[in-house]
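Case study B.
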Amino acid sequence: MRLIRRTVVLVRGAGLLRDVIAVASAVGVVGASFGAMAAAAGVAPELTIGMSLLVFAGGAQFLAVGVIGAGGGIAAAILAGLLLNARHLPFGLAVGAAFDRGWATRIVGSHLMIDESVAFALAQREPERRRRAYWMCGIAVFVCWNLGTALGVLAGGAVGDPNVLGLDAAFPAGLLALLLPSLADRVALRVALIGATIAVVATPLLQPGAGLLLALIALAFALPLPARRPGRRP
Amino acid sequence: MTWAAVLLLAAGTYALRLAGPMLRRRITLPEAAVRYCGLGAVVLLAAFIATSTMIDGTRLVGPTRPAAVAVGAILALRRAPFIVVVCGAAVTAAVLRLAGLP
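Model:
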């Protein structure tokens, strides 16, 4: 029995690893395009590589380099990047329990908090699987993003447009597949649809990050929260 | 881009990432608030998926990306393996672009 159970766990772990590798390798390609784009925009190689290591937030990095490239100035670039990254605060409240087992895991685990690791963690039901999914995804994406960035900086213009490979569609589709189990709950589905609509309508009118944060208004449509398992007592 | 800008962006981002776990430790949240945080993460991810499907910067994208993500969504709803969902969306987008769609 124990052997069977262990095999089942291994097989499940292998499925998770396979999914994590799929996401991380796609992230690597996007990292390469970030490196090439930053090099083309005239950002020094050590700054581009330092940015991927220390900021480790793809959307904010593209945005910051883009804002400076468009002549927006450094202050505007930092503000825009931080606004886009403000979503990590509620992320941390939601998945903090998955990685925070003391100061060391808190310090390292917080840096690995990205959309992918949060989505992978949320897609798991059991706490132990949630913890493993968070770390596996966070570490794999961190390695691939930084290797990709370094390669992109070195290769420069030789890196093609990742949109030709359809990677721009692969990311939202992958995140959606990870989010689906959480949407089985009717309240979650309702607020998610309302939030997505708010963000899509608001983003063209505002800064990219502001549209995302406005989506949190949708939480008002979760009220009143139905009692968990009505009629049952713990 | 300067080191000062990179370090400020990095420090600010890290502070935002660390704030959630720190807050969770300092204050004991009531059960309803914990569920709200979970819902908040779901809403933000859904909003992020929707905007990265429909919008580039602050402009609406052409039909290729939304169509390809829709193919991925249908595959995911039919319980296709994760890798099939991701590759299905990517291949759809690549083929539509080869066909000349924006």
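Chain A touches chain B through 97 residues (CB under 8 Å). The remaining cases will be described in the next quarterly update.
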